[in-house]
Amino acid sequence: MKRIDAHQHFWKYDPVTGAWITDEMQVIRRDFMPSDLQPLLEQHGIDGCVAVQAEQSLAENTFLLGLADQHPFIRGVVGWVDLKSAHLAQQMEPFLDHPTFKGVRHILQAEPDGFMTDPRFIRGVAWLGQQGLTYDILTTEKQLAEVVQFVEALPAMPLVIDHISKPNIAQASFSHWASHMQRLSAFEHVCVKLSGMITEAHWQSWKPEDLAPYVDFCLKHFGPERLMYGSDWPVCLVAGTYAEAQAALAHCLASLSPSEKEAIFGLTARRFYSLD
Fold it and tell me: What is the per-residue DSSP string for 157-222?
């Protein structure tokens, strides 16, 4: 069974495009490239990964696809395009035929209310689906009511919620997040990445038990066949190592059967992203 890390990033650090990396996150103010990740994947028995955009530019697609061409363990790329653009098809033309280009993401967590339900944005995402591509939803728990509207408008689109939509685990925020995630679980075309959780907890003092209520909820309502593991490396390094992040999730999943673990650690991602 091929094990997949369904969410990680590469970048050459630039203080302008990397302005989101605050002083508190200095550990990730440097380049992170495939040569840094490959030993970690091998150490943890991970056969491949999905590289997700960190910069919102067409150049990011070229950068990530170029890395994928050089490193076969990069099985998929989730890039970026301006989904509201009247020239969307023209933007996408250089990337559509690349076998590793699997989907698109926009950093919705930084956008104002109403951005993702703008009819132009909805049309753009629907167009991606018509090309056989997927869409990653990056939002915080505060945006979940709008995520429900977004998902309702795209009933045929393969969608995945990144980082379980970032509940404030450090403050044990749960009920608002859970009520909306339960609504989203009714949409069978929506998957969830069990990723990015330790960076929503207390960076210096989190424990696997802090994550458990969120993982248990996702297991109950989405099931292993709609959940996928992602390290969120190197962003995870602000709160823990690759090994610590993976071990925390493994702790939360300890009671699952081997087949359920296989789904979360590979099969769901391979199906969703149509990975080889």
Answer: S-EEEGGGG---GGGT--HHHHHHHHHHHT-TTEEEEE-S-GGGS-TTT--HHHHHHHHHHHHHHH
Is 67 buried (19+), middle (13-18) or exposed (0-12) by CB count in 10 A?
Answer: middle
What pLDDT does 67 receive?
Answer: 98
Q: Collect all residues with Cβ–Cβ distance below 8 Å to 118 and sequence separation of at least 6.
A: 84
Are 174 and 212 in contact, with CB atoms under 8 Å apart? no
Specify the DSSP class assigned to residue 267: I
Rounded to 10 degrees, what is the CA torsion of 122, 124, 125, 128?
A: 150
Q: Any bridge partners for residue 228, and if so which?
A: 193
Q: What is the CATH number of the domain that holds 147?
A: 3.20.20.140
Q: What is the pTM of this model?
A: 0.97
Mean pLDDT, 10 residues at a time, over the chain (276 residues)?
A: 94 93 95 98 97 98 98 98 98 97 98 98 98 98 98 97 98 97 98 98 97 98 98 98 97 97 98 94
Q: How many domains does the chain have?
A: 1
Closest CA to 242 of 42, 85, 70: 42
Domain that holds residue 162: 4-272
